[in-house]
Write a structure and sequence with these properties.
It contains two helices and eight strands, in the order E-E-E-H-E-E-H-E-E-E. The chain is of the alpha+beta class and about 140 residues long. The longest helix is centred in the middle third of the chain and has 15 residues. It is elongated and about 65 Å long. It starts with 5 loop residues before the first strand and ends in an 8-residue tail after the last strand. The mean pLDDT is about 90.
């Protein structure tokens, strides 16, 4: 598979280096390589096959395109305030239950605009994401 929209970040300090590779279309970091200072120096010196450690993430999303939509949903019906972690926990559960199949909700509810009331109902707003093949047209569902 050929990937045309990658980004690489290299962090270097006195202990070594960390290299991250990201697929910008999928908006996913999929490779994280860690090297000691000696390993990184050897690689920069053109030594081949330098040993290192790494982690791979989200390979099922690499080569895809991430789509995003606003997602607004009812958390609960109440005339009493629910605040802090309790409200965020309720919102996370409601988001997971109410999100359409094939989409994943963003589970961050720390923004001041994350919650609002419609009458006596507590509602939340966030984003939802899905990954589609690069050549597929989105129908918005």
């Amino acid at each position: 598979m050929k990937l045309d929209n990658l980004a690489i970040t290299i962090y270097v300090d006195e202990t070594g280096a960390r290299i991250e590779v990201r697929d910008n279309d999928a908006a996913v970091r999929f490779l994280d390589i860690k090297m000691t200072a000696a390993q990184f120096t050897a690689a920069l010196g053109r030594q081949g096959h330098v040993e290192c450690v790494g982690e791979v993430y989200g390979l099922d999303r690499v080569g895809m395109r991430r789509e995003q939509q606003d997602f607004t949903f009812k958390v609960l019906s109440t005339d009493k305030g629910v605040y802090g972690d309790d409200r965020r926990d309720l919102a996370r559960r409601a988001a997971l239950v109410g999100c359409p199949v094939g989409w994943e909700p963003q589970l961050y509810f720390g923004s001041q605009d994350s919650f609002f009331f419609k009458g006596k109902e507590l509602w939340a707003r966030t984003k939802r994401y899905r990954w589609v093949p690069l050549d597929a047209e989105s129908n918005g569902t």
